[in-house]
Please model this.
Amino acid sequence: MMKRIKFKKIDAFATGKSEGNPAGCIWLDEPGELSATEMLQIAKEMKGFVSEVGYATPVSENEYDLKYYSSERELDFCGHVTIATMYDIVKTNEPTAHESYQINTNRGRLMVENRIKSDDSVFVMSPDPVENNNVPDISEIAAKLRINESEINSRLPITIINAGLETLVVPISTLDSILGIQPDLDELKDFCYKSGVDIIEVFTPDVYEKTNDYRTRVFAPTFGYIEDPATGSGNSAFGYYLLNNDLWKNETITIEQNGKWEQYNVVKLQKKADENDNQRVWFGGGAISRIEGEYIIYP
Model:
């Protein structure tokens, strides 16, 4: 039987001067409406059009099950898809939208705050962080990023943190250096699989707009493309990195992300204690809906 499902292409973290990160958002009526094979196939068909595809199934008015797929595989969590999906749910249901929502993911139950009225954003609590000490050698990292080892800031540690995705966090000395990184897709993909990481996040406090705090770039070759232009999970790992190294200075951390000099995307981080009094990183942003319609699956 042919299936017709609600579909939107939504750009998360987009601003007036940047394009954001394109997400495919699909809303399902009930669990099991699509199989894992069908969800992966849709993500494969959307390769090059969106970064990842998310599937949202309502549990109640303010609770949703979320699944995430790249063109390569299912993901435990995807930040920009969560922002796109939940921002659209809130905007679609105004003025009766809830102040907070719960999402159920492969990385557990997470909270989402509706801050549309105050910040034109939704903020998402990131998964519990897990740190991995099996960090690759600095010379190998530099070689795979195709930069000089001296461009990596040796005064700060290189760390692997999972806040949704296994993220290799690498400090870079200058904005010029970070913007000049041009790795090879296949070479970096092999390195990520060998190192056991999903993505590589590079960062520097050297920024284009001095009111911002950091510039980041995220490389995601294991998902089938070289760079993720705006991320929630990667920047959440970076937020925990800042906390662990006493580098979180402001209440809200504002991040410029992508490899463009002034046309960067904006991701915001905040910290808040959870019910167990553990500091959790929240990431926030808005989204712009570009395309709306139906996705048709033929038998």
